[in-house]
Specification:
Number of strands: 16
Strand order of the largest sheet: 1-2-3-6-7-8-9-10-11-12-13-14-15-16
Structural class: mainly beta
Oligomer: single chain
Order of helices and strands: HHEEEEEEEEEEEEEEEE
CATH topology: Porin
Largest sheet: 14 strands, antiparallel, barrel
Distance between the termini: 42 Å
Length: 299
């Protein structure tokens, strides 16, 4: 949970440095919400996945709606949600909007004793964005322009970010993808932003239980944020287009001691709806974080 240290730094820095630190604290909250992703962020697919990589694979649906809810254990007290809508716009590609909010709860003001002396301390970050994606020469390209608000107690900062992403299938087995996340500067050591990259390889495909199964191996990396990179290793199993299981382990970078964490997820498609359930393995006996998502496609 070394990412929480960044958040606390945002509350403690000198006023002249607070804006930059709060931006980093807001991104740390989103990294906390991302611990339930059992797929490297660059490779995540789905309607709400435009939040992680705007270059989503072309979909034949006319309209796509997605919503996800995230809840961390009580010892951390963070919760959040993502919502997105995408529509086909002819030759322009797919356009849409994305919204996200994540915050900490049960933070109270105290004085010389642990007893509360006032109301709750508001700590949250949220983003509103417009997104676009389109296949170009066999490559899925995407962009997201987003406005961010981060509040730590009485201080609120805002900023604009512009992210780009790309995803490409190379032959029948290999897919590579990359994206920026919350890009607002060209620095490679800004803790308020990330760069994602990932590769997915189909290890096996064949008939199974009257349907067609596939096993995929994955590797991802998150870097360009001022501390050592995160390395993600995972696998996914799909049975037809109905059921899928994903698992991942991440070597999480930090400013000090690095650590490992795991996550797993289950997806099932029922008609025009795809339901996702995911959780992380928990660290330091704090309990697990959970994510529930629903995608709907309308043709």
């Amino acid at each position: 949970m070394q990412r929480i240290a960044v958040l606390l730094a945002g509350l403690a820095v000198l006023p002249g440095e607070r804006g930059t630190a709060q931006q980093a604290a807001g991104t740390a909250l989103w990294r906390l919400a991302a611990i339930t992703l059992p797929v490297p962020p660059a490779l995540v697919t789905g309607t709400a996945a435009v939040f992680w990589n705007p270059a989503q694979i072309e979909d034949s649906a006319r309209t796509q709606l997605g919503i996800e809810a995230i809840q961390t254990p009580a010892a951390i007290g963070a919760s959040g949600m993502l919502a997105a809508i995408r529509v086909r716009a002819g030759r322009v590609g797919q356009i849409g909007f994305v919204y996200g909010h994540v915050g900490l709860s049960d933070l109270t003001r105290t004085g010389d004793s642990p007893d509360p002396i006032g109301g709750d301390v508001p700590v949250y970050t949220r983003a509103f964005g417009a997104t676009w994606s389109r296949p170009v020469a066999g490559v899925a390209l995407g962009t997201t322009l987003a406005y961010h608000e981060t509040r730590l107690d009485a201080v609120q900062v805002t900023r604009w970010t512009f992210d780009v992403g790309a995803s490409r299938e190379i032959g029948p087995r290999l897919r590579v993808a990359a994206a920026t996340h919350f890009l607002s500067s060209f620095s490679t050591s800004d803790p308020a932003q990330d760069v994602y990259a990932g590769v997915e390889y189909r290890l096996w495909q064949g008939p199974l239980w009257g349907d067609r199964g596939a096993l995929r191996g994955r590797y991802g990396i998150a870097f360009g944020h001022g501390f050592t990179p995160d390395h993600q290793f995972g696998a996914g199993f799909e049975l037809g287009r109905v059921v899928a299981f994903d698992v991942a382990v991440t070597r999480e970078g930090s400013y000090g001691t690095e650590g490992w964490r795991g996550a797993g997820g289950f997806r099932v498609t029922i008609g025009k709806y795809r339901i996702t359930l995911a959780r992380d393995a928990g660290v330091n006996e704090l309990g697990s974080a959970y994510r529930v998502g629903v995608d709907a496609r309308f043709r």
